[in-house]
Design brief:
Blueprint: H1 8-20, H2 30-44, H3 59-64, H4 69-88, H5 91-95, H6 98-112, H7 116-126
C-alpha cells in the first residue's frame, strides 16, 4: 500500500473496524503444535556456549597473521620493493618499462585536467 493510498484518519478507521470483527476460531491444539514446531526448529539453530578453539600459531605465523599470513607478507614485500624501485629508480629506465608509460600517462592526464573544485578556487581567487 502506497503512502498516498490512505491518510491517517482512514487508516485509523480501518483499524477500528478490524478490532470490531470477531476473531477466527483456532482449532484445538493448533497453537500448541505451532509452538512445539517452533521450539524444535529453534533448537537446531541454538548458539553453542563454548567459543571455538583458537589455532595454535607459531612465532612467524602469529607475527604475520594480521596481514594475511606468510603469503600476505610476501605480497607486501613484493609491492614495497616495486614501490621503492619506482621511487628511487632512474626515471628514464622507469619510462622504458612497457606498462609504466600507460600508468604514468593516466596520472599526468588527471593532473593536467582541472577539476571543478580547482576551477572554483581559481575563480574565487580572481574576485
Amino acid at each position: 500500500m502506497a503512502d498516498s493510498d490512505l491518510n491517517e484518519t482512514e487508516l485509523a478507521i480501518l483499524f477500528e473496524e478490524a478490532k470490531l470483527t470477531l476473531p477466527v476460531d483456532v482449532p484445538t491444539g493448533l497453537t500448541e503444535q505451532v509452538l512445539a514446531d517452533a521450539a524444535q526448529i529453534g533448537a537446531a539453530y541454538a548458539v553453542q556456549d563454548t567459543p571455538p578453539k583458537a589455532k595454535n600459531l607459531t612465532g612467524f605465523r602469529r607475527l604475520f597473521a594480521p596481514i594475511g599470513g606468510l603469503s600476505g607478507a610476501l605480497a607486501l614485500a613484493v609491492f614495497a620493493g616495486f614501490g621503492l624501485m619506482a621511487g628511487l629508480g632512474d626515471p628514464e629506465r622507469l619510462y622504458s618499462l612497457p606498462v609504466m608509460e600507460d600508468i604514468l600517462a593516466v596520472f599526468l592526464v588527471e593532473i593536467s585536467n582541472p577539476t571543478p573544485l580547482d576551477t572554483l578556487e581559481y575563480l574565487m581567487a580572481e574576485s
